[in-house]
Amino acid sequence: MTFRLSAAAIDSASLRKELGDTRAGACVIFEGWVRASNDGREVRALEYEAYAPLAEKEGARILAEAKARFAILDALCVHRTGPLALGELAVWVGVTAEHRGIAFEACRHLIDELKARLPVWKKEHYAQGPTAWINAQTQPSISPRNQPVIH
Amino acid sequence: MTKTVNVRYFAALREQRGLAQERLATAADDAAGLYAELRGRHGFTLTAERLRVAVNDEFAPWSTPVRDGDTLVFLPPVAGG
To answer: Does the beta-carbon distance from A53 to B77 stay under 8 Å?
Structure first.
């Protein structure tokens, strides 16, 4: 169970190898890609900024919670930092389990929790107009149950 | 009593402050008091209700007392993934 931040490009093939396990009958991988539009605006590039010491702790906690909740064999999550071009991998989540159902569920759970809880910020650069820091709490894809827990 | 603390800034707060971290003296009793003081001084647009707090690299309540040598971070709404 590993979470890490990466300033370098994410290599999906090598991460997949890290999860290799002959006990596993399923490996579900989610790749978050940088897309060319958001909320109707043309995006040219973006950058991620992370509060690394706390992001690493929170990422590890999210993985430990998933391990306790789902019968998974392993999970690996990597989140990019720094400037990213369109089409680049922003986040990578891989989960192995004996069977596909658990692997799908756990992978979905992990990406939702990571998006809602990691102290990571995204700034979008647009074709026109000033850059903007994106506020996940205004994005419709984040449901209320995924709002950050107030400790 | 005056304490010396470190404050780190990220994302919108870093840009509004114009730096990523600073060491400063404060008489604030708790994290809420320190943010109010800094917001008054630098005109941060984010209200405390929209932020979370971390003290010494761990999430903490706004009521956490400010102690000499602490590192505080006021976290804007996150947007990973």
So the answer is: no
